[in-house]
Amino acid sequence: MVDDQIDEETPVFAIAAAAELAGMHPQTLRQYDRLGLVIPARTQGGSRRYSLRHVGQLREVAQLSAEGMSLPAIARIIELENHVRMLRRQVGELEQRLREEIEQRRGVRVFAAGATGSVVTLRHGTRTRRATDVVLWRPRPPRTDGE
């Protein structure tokens, strides 16, 4: 099955195509790259390659500049947007790891053994006294090889 969604992070546009999509002159894109406003990926030969996200950033820079915002202020906005994007990606990854960990812990039971040797099943999140040993028990997965 072919994925119909285009990855907006993939650098596919040469400078001329990106400039046309953004409604700018290629020299403007070179200047923005030098200033650190919109920094494209580079091929092994050093050619600039822009993604759809870059084209969107170029349009945003043009709009903010037309509204009177300075280029250093625009650079700071883009820097913060990139930081937020990175943090959102990290949060997504951490949420996925947490979901996997919760799923992995299903079926884990916790028992406590007191000083007298009595065994008590603890509910999730229950604290034990210091004199109590805690044991994790994870049932074996069912065998599928017929043994």
UniProtKB/TrEMBL annotation:
InterPro entries documented for this protein: DNA-bd_dom_put_sf (IPR009061), MerR-type_HTH_dom (IPR000551), MerR_fam (IPR047057)
SUPFAM superfamilies hit by this protein: Putative DNA-binding domain
Coiled coil: 77-104
GO MF annotation, one: DNA-binding transcription factor activity
One Pfam family here: MerR_1
SMART domains: HTH_MERR
Keyword flag DNA-binding: yes
HTH merR-type domain segment(s): 12-80
PROSITE patterns: HTH_MERR_2 (PS50937)
Protein name: MerR family transcriptional regulator/heat shock protein HspR
Organism of derivation: Microbacterium invictum
